[in-house]
Amino acid sequence: xxxxxxAIDRYRRRIRKRVLISFALILLLxxxxxxxxxxxxxxxxxxxxxxxxxxxxxxxxxxxxxxxEIRLPMTFTCLFVGASLSLAGLLIQTITHNPLASPYTLGVxxxxxxxxxxxxxxxxxxxGQVWIGTSLSALVMALSVSAxxxxxxxxxxxxxxxxxxxxxxxxxxxQALQQYLQYRASPEIAQVISGWTFGxxxxxxxISASVSAFTWTAAMFISLTxxxxxxxxxxxxxxxxxxGINTNRLRMFVFSVSSILVSAAVAFIGxxxxxxxxxxxxxxxxxxxxQRFLIISSSIMGSILMLAASVISKLxxxxxxxxxxxxxxxxGVPFLFFLLMRSKE
Length: 345
Fold this sequence. Notes:
Elements: H1 2-38, H2 46-55, H3 62-96, H4 108-122, H5 130-155, H6 160-184, H7 187-196, H8 206-225, H9 227-234, H10 237-242, H11 247-269, H12 275-287, H13 291-316, H14 324-344
Helix pairs in contact: 1-3, 1-13, 2-3, 3-8, 3-11, 3-12, 3-13, 4-5, 4-6, 4-7, 4-11, 5-11, 6-7, 8-11, 12-13, 13-14
């Protein structure tokens, strides 16, 4: 009886600790959110910033225009794109039992980026909206890569190393196709496609912020309904099968949701590397493997990384914003190397 009570107390302490850490992450997120709005090429004081926000989008000052038409769309796009990429990375790592897996390392991002490049080259539009055509093209290619990975995983037992090698092949293949499109396209289109590979937040708008926010919110709530299944699957497919979980259906769900999240991000700001790899790992280090906390906190961590990268990119460049994808790549490459070394051990 005493042992059972002690176990319950430990569980409650662990839950309280995770809740406190989650609130600390939210506080850090809010600080970076304000910092990202404040920092920019135009020098706007804190008082002017607050006044512009209070005046709303109809304010007559230049500060109101800069805040509401440029900075806020960029900040909120950054917020939800980071959350989307991190959630996609968490789901993929859980379902593949591979610490090196992410939309970027598996080639899903490269496929989505190529789909967006095809749409840009063809000026493909749906209902008169180019962004819808770009999103659909990115989604089709992301789903195609995910389906291939799912097929290979079912056809033969892929080791962690083999799975990453498949991702490397996908990355090289779609990069080659994208370079061919650039070579054949007009200089203007080639420049747009080239800029797509850097992950540039300057393409942000209220449409990109709204679409990425809706996509992430829907994916998060759906994922929360699968939280206990994902937690069970994290302990092994055999245990999940023993609990009556349809593992194939769960894998299909994860790859589909991840593809939608990635395509919604890539369609607007281009390729952003390593956020889906770094953020889930950082969250697991401080919260453990409970998916009830990981799904939300990992998304918060992804937003934190993206906002931090955005602030750094603004501080490193004068007069223009450095593409945020460059910053995330500089951070992500040594982190991936660290994971590779640890996995070998």
